[in-house]
Amino acid sequence: MKNVKIFLIILIIIFVIFLIFFLNNKVNENSEYNEMEVIENMKITSPAFKEGGKIPSKYTCDDANINPELHFEQVPENAKSLVLIMDDPDAPVGLWVHWVVFNIPSTTKIVPEDSEPQGTPGKGTNKRTGYMGPCPPDKEHRYFFKLYALDTNLNLPAGSTKDQVENAMKGHVLAQAQLMGKYVRSH
Fold first, then answer.
1. What is the reported pTM?
2. Structural domain containing residue 22
3. Do 63 and 130 reside in the same domain of the chain?
4. Cβ atoms within 10 A of the Cβ of 62, count?
5. Whether residue 32 is found in the same domain as residue 47
6. In this structure, are 169 and 85 located in the same domain?
7. Whole-number Cα distances in Å, 120 to 65, 81, 157
């Protein structure tokens, strides 16, 4: 009888531990959901094209290959810096990084056409810094302009890669937004 009581006490303890773990995970899921609500408030837009629209050839390798004007809206007041990444997930070789700039002042509202935002330039897949416009070799591709608001400046050198920047950003993202445009070359 004594062994049965001990067994029942152990089962109750295991059940309580499981319950605490389960409820703790539910609280964390709700926290992440609330954080996602904040993330949706920040915006990145361009007067050159709408979300999901065609990127004009002026901003591609088929023409001037300059960056489009970008607007940053509703950046959190407590942000210390911004990160801008442009990439193409449809490239035949895998993800192709076109533009990386970090430690952009959080007060930046507009990146004018044909300009680099104030900040630290990172390196794209082509191993160079600076904007590299869309240049799909095969079909229509999607290009994502991603904006991140951080609670810190990143302690990274110029020429850091997207992966290095994203690793340094972990735990510091206050908000994020993206703008997607499409481009296909007319051969």
1. 0.79
2. 1-39
3. yes
4. 15
5. no
6. yes
7. 20, 11, 8
CATH number at residue 115: 3.90.280.10
Tell me the pLDDT tens digit for each residue of 114-141. Answer: 999 999 999 999 999 999 999 999 999 9
Closest by alpha carbon to 79, among 99, 61, 60, 105?
105
pLDDT at 5: 75
Are both 14 and 93 inside the same structural domain?
A: no
Nearest one of 115, 141, 142, 132 to 65, comparing CA atoms: 132
Which residues of the chain have a pLDDT value below 50?
26-38
Q: How many domains is the chain partitioned into structurally?
A: 2
How many C-beta neighbours within 10 Å does residue 167 have?
12
- Burial tier of 182 (Cβ tally within 10 Å: 0-12, 13-18, 19+): middle
How many whole angstroms separate alpha carbon 104 and alpha carbon 153?
Answer: 9
13: three-class secondary structure by DSSP: helix
